[in-house]
Amino acid sequence: MDSISLNSLFAPLTSLRGIGPAVAKLIARAAGGANGGGRVIDLLFHMPESYLDRSARPTIRAAQPGIVERLLLLSYPLHPPKRPTELRTAHFPNLQTPALFVSGVKDGFASIHEITEALKLIPARTELISVEGSGHELMTKRNRDELPLRVVHAFQSF
């Protein structure tokens, strides 16, 4: 092995493209690099203690009574935008877990009327909070101070 390739392993993290001093310091702290800003080799021998696995993404279709008490569905995509005939409701008649839906009045994935009609397919208890002035994103400059608390309180009492 030549010395050029070994030397690059001991180079500072800032020698890597896109890593400045601030990011190098964060990486060094996470990787356990004790020398100032860390070295490239510190990344190779960094063994995380744990990680958050986000690969398992359960769907409401998989919700079973007794596993969760209730569901909170924010901006449920009832259909693709501008395609209201392609409803995503086939599983609704089997949903046995109470569900609180929160939807923007201007949501392109589901109008309030469409959501209201779809909720009739669910045999479990449902409730809909419609958010005035919002689309699919729900949070706006006007409601960002009040909406999170409103949703949390509604879900707690649901």
Describe the structure.
This protein is α/β, with parallel strands linked by helices. The protein has 2 domains: 3-44, no CATH class; 60-157, 3-Layer(aba) Sandwich (Rossmann fold), CATH 3.40.50. The protein has 5 helices and 3 strands. It has helices spanning 3-9, 21-31, 40-44, 112-119, 147-157; strands at residues 71-74, 99-104, 126-131. β2, α4 (112-119) and β3 form a beta-alpha-beta unit.
Q: Any chance you could write out the topology, listing elements then pairs?
A:
Elements: H1 3-9, H2 21-31, H3 40-44, E1 71-74, E2 99-104, H4 112-119, E3 126-131, H5 147-157
CATH superfamily of the largest domain: Alpha/Beta hydrolase fold, catalytic domain
Residue windows where pLDDT falls under 50 for at least 5 positions:
none
The biggest beta sheet reads: 3 strands, parallel
Radius of gyration: 24 Å
**Roughly how much helix do the residues carry, as a percent range?**
25-40%
> What is the CATH C-level name of the largest domain?
Alpha Beta
The count of DSSP E runs of length 2 or more, i.e. the number of strands, is 3
Strand content: 5-15%
Structural class: alpha/beta
Instruction: Provide a count of the helices.
Output: 5
What separation lies between the terminal Cα atoms?
Answer: 65 Å
Mean pLDDT rating: 83
- CATH fold-level label of the largest domain: Rossmann fold
User: How many domains, as an integer?
Assistant: 2
Molecular shape: elongated
Strand order of the largest sheet: 1-2-3
Q: What's the order of the H and E elements?
A: HHHEEHEH
Architecture of the largest domain, CATH level 2? 3-Layer(aba) Sandwich
